[in-house]
Design brief:
With 374 residues, the protein is an all-alpha fold. The chain contains 18 helices and no strands.
Length: 374
């Protein structure tokens, strides 16, 4: 999961942060690419490229949204591991657990709204109106047609996170009381059934499948829960597969088959899980390779550690820049892309660090004041 305020006592896994860093940079680049090269122009781009390199560049660039599936899987993974560690110290107080997660999520989300409202270099595609109340609450699935992508389309993911956090205690209880793979099978079946109903039986707005209804993304999240259990029980074995090259090779081999699931509505039921898994295997595999290079790993690890802030603020900026360089040649786009990725990383990190510092100070002040008031 994207993390805001993080427990200081928990040792971070560098490869996991590097994977998040790669994924968030891919998301930022994807939104920038889609603004500079809208789908209507892809045919002319291929005609102009006229070679395999151009085709490969287009295909890789337009798959950046698959990183969302990776983040959903990592959400389940991180929540399962952190909550399992907490459970070893005694019974979990779920009220306090919910409060801690909401404190991690909401402050940076509200800061992103404030930045959007006051920044001079963001693209404002919609008016600020009464819908901002539901946006601030994170309830973007209410009147989903007009609210889901309101102001900043990337914020739909926050609504999904809220729902996943809400149902996590039930999933945690179920996963620990049955065989993990049976749990995954049941959870995936429930998610696929929800997608079947919304795609085939009672066709609805596609936003419900994207994240408006968390059940539709339950297969990825449940897989993350199981992977978190596997990693907790056997970290060496799990990391050997994901980081040792086998996972990367598996992801590259399976990716073309996963993409074929876009063929029709029936196969589309399974496409988000399939592409999310392939993206996870490829990105985590690359992270394992990059961890052997100290300098790049350090930079990408920092970006990944603050991927939540980068994700929340980047899209209006990259749309603003992308619209203003559409007439520039491809080489200029590539140069500007590097600058955009760097600036969005620095800006997102700075905002999240500042937000975390304020939240931590307020939390510590409240803790000190509590005994006195009692």
């Amino acid at each position: 999961m994207f993390h805001a305020v993080r427990p200081r006592a928990v040792k971070r896994l560098l490869w996991l942060d590097v994977a998040r860093g790669l994924a968030i940079l891919w998301v930022v680049y994807f939104h920038f690419f889609m603004t500079y090269f809208p789908p209507a122009q892809w045919g002319s781009l291929l005609d102009g490229a006229g070679n395999l390199a151009g085709i490969a560049w287009l295909e890789i660039s337009k798959l950046g949204y698959h990183a969302v599936g990776l983040f959903i899987i990592l959400s389940g993974w991180a929540l399962m591991e952190s909550t399992s560690r907490r459970a070893t110290r005694g019974p979990i107080k779920w009220g306090a657990w919910y409060f801690a997660r909401l404190i991690r999520l909401y402050p940076m989300y509200w800061v992103a709204h404030l930045v959007y409202l006051v920044s001079p270099f963001v693209e404002r595609l919609e008016p600020v109106d009464s819908r901002i109340i539901l946006s601030l609450l994170g309830l973007r699935f209410i009147d989903i047609t007009s609210n889901f992508n309101y102001l900043n389309a990337a914020w739909w993911y926050f609504s999904l996170l809220l729902q996943l956090v809400l149902i996590f205690p039930l999933l945690f209880w179920a996963a620990r009381r049955m065989n993990p793979w049976v749990f995954l099978l049941l959870a995936a079946t429930l998610g696929f059934f929800a997608r079947y109903l919304l795609l085939i039986v009672y066709p609805q707005n596609g936003a419900w499948l994207t994240g408006g209804l968390a059940l539709c993304r339950l297969p990825e999240f449940a897989l993350g829960v199981v992977l978190g259990m596997c990693h907790s029980r056997s970290p060496e074995r799990t990391e050997k597969f994901f980081l040792g090259g086998a996972g990367l090779a598996t992801g590259l081999i399976l990716y073309p088959f996963a993409l074929k699931l876009y063929a029709n509505s029936y196969t589309y039921i399974f496409v988000d899980l399939a592409t999310g898994v392939c993206c996870l295997l490829v990105v985590v595999g690359l992270a394992g390779l990059l961890c052997r290079l100290p300098a790049p790993a350090k930079v990408l690890g920092l970006i990944g550690a603050y991927s939540y802030g980068i994700f929340l603020v980047h899209q209006p900026y990259v749309i603003w820049v992308g619209l203003r360089i559409r007439e520039q040649p491809v080489w200029m786009f590539l140069l500007v892309s590097l600058a955009v990725l760097a600036l969005m990383s620095v800006w997102g990190i700075a905002l999240e660090k500042a937000t975390n510092a304020v939240v931590n100070r307020v939390s510590e002040a409240l803790k000190r004041a509590k005994p006195a008031s009692a």
